[in-house]
Design brief:
Elements: H1 3-6, E1 26-34, E2 37-45, E3 55-61, H2 71-81, E4 85-89, H3 107-122, E5 127-137, H4 139-150, E6 156-160, H5 165-171, H6 181-196, H7 207-210, H8 213-216, H9 222-234, H10 249-252, E7 268-273, H11 279-287, E8 295-300, H12 312-329
Parallel strand pairs: 3-4, 3-5, 5-6, 6-7, 7-8
Antiparallel strand pairs: 1-2, 2-4
Helix pairs in contact: 3-4
């Protein structure tokens, strides 16, 4: 039996809630509507939660290919243990949220997902809407930065292992596909036409399906080696997939998380592993965050991108930093 099957809430992270108990952090599966689609989310409430009182809240946006039951759930639970009402949600078209074709992955959707999550949490029982923060992880981090530029209901902004999805989809990781941009764009528009004509939806390859664990260890980048281990072995979940519609590239290629960073005037914390081969993405966004005087770049010694998701020694450092940051700013 898998971790997902063993846990009644489908949670696959370590020390996850298995049942709701009086006086403990509890989890509440919820659904809400966003632009005609039903969004699936988990709300975590602090120990001894009293809905007649008010609490600060934090929304957590999951990584590319991830779902709310993985790392987004882990940090939601950690923050709830600190006394926050938290929420991890599945992006539209992904996980248990509605939307067709499945695994459409367009930046405008992901940013709108975040606005929609804020819509929901500010009206949740017990939430102090003047003290709402956000934590965006990986691709969710890049989209969080874009959303926070205009959504001033968000009072404090944190990212972990931020990933600039559009640049990577366009240029390839570390510019490894920069010579095929035009060819891939032409293919994306052909896929779009196929969809409009009712043909089968085409998807990008899912490395979890086309690669063995042994083959994954030979990949040149830690991001993908560690990613295969996390998503394909240690924290596998049926809702998680690295495949996305080929037509999504039309929108992805024009997205750059660095653009608009100057619009963030809220307190900003950007965290990343010091050994992460994605660190340049966090640094590129951080450098352009000129609109806030309250900002910090926090690097975790020894950590790679994916290892910030689940290695206990890194999770502890990140959790402590989040407690400090949100404690000061919410």
């Amino acid at each position: 039996m898998s971790k997902e099957e063993e846990n009644q809430f489908g949670l696959v992270y370590d020390n996850a809630i298995t049942e709701n108990k009086m006086g403990k952090v509890n989890i509440h599966p919820v659904n809400y509507m966003l632009n005609g689609l039903k969004i699936s989310a988990n709300v975590y409430t602090p120990a001894n939660f009293d809905e007649t009182k008010t609490y600060p809240a934090v929304v957590v946006a999951h990584p590319n290919g991830g779902v709310k039951e993985q790392v987004a759930g882990l940090y939601s639970q950690k923050l709830a243990e600190m006394g926050y009402i938290t929420m991890a949600f599945d992006a539209a078209y992904q996980g248990k949220s509605e939307g067709m074709p499945r695994n459409t992955d367009k930046p405008q959707n992901r940013v709108e997902d975040i606005h929609g999550a804020i819509d929901y949490i500010v009206s949740y029982k017990g939430v102090d809407r003047t003290r709402v923060g956000i934590l965006g992880i990986c691709g969710g981090g890049g989209y969080t930065l874009r959303a926070a530029g205009t959504d001033k209901r968000i009072k404090a902004v944190a990212t972990l292992s931020a990933f600039n999805t559009g640049i990577v989809r366009k240029n390839g990781f570390l510019d490894s596909q920069i010579n095929t941009i035009t060819e891939r764009l032409e293919d994306a528009y052909k896929a779009r036409e196929d969809e409009l004509s009712g043909k089968e939806v085409r998807y990008t390859p899912n490395m979890l399906d086309i690669m063995t664990p042994e083959e994954s260890k030979k990949m040149p980048f830690d991001l993908y080696k560690d990613g295969y281990e996390y998503y394909g072995i240690t924290h596998k979940h049926t809702g998680s997939s690295f495949a996305y519609t080929v037509s999504s590239n039309i929108d992805l290629f024009s997205f750059d998380a660095r653009c608009g960073m100057e619009m963030i005037n809220q307190p900003l914390l950007m965290m990343a592993g010091k050994m992460a081969d994605t660190l340049y993405m966090t640094e590129g966004c951080y450098e352009r965050a000129t609109g806030t005087k309250n900002k910090e770049l926090f690097l975790i010694d020894g950590a790679t991108h994916i290892k910030t998701y689940w290695y206990p020694e890194y999770v502890e450092k990140i959790t402590n930093k989040l407690e400090e940051f949100f404690g000061k700013n919410l």
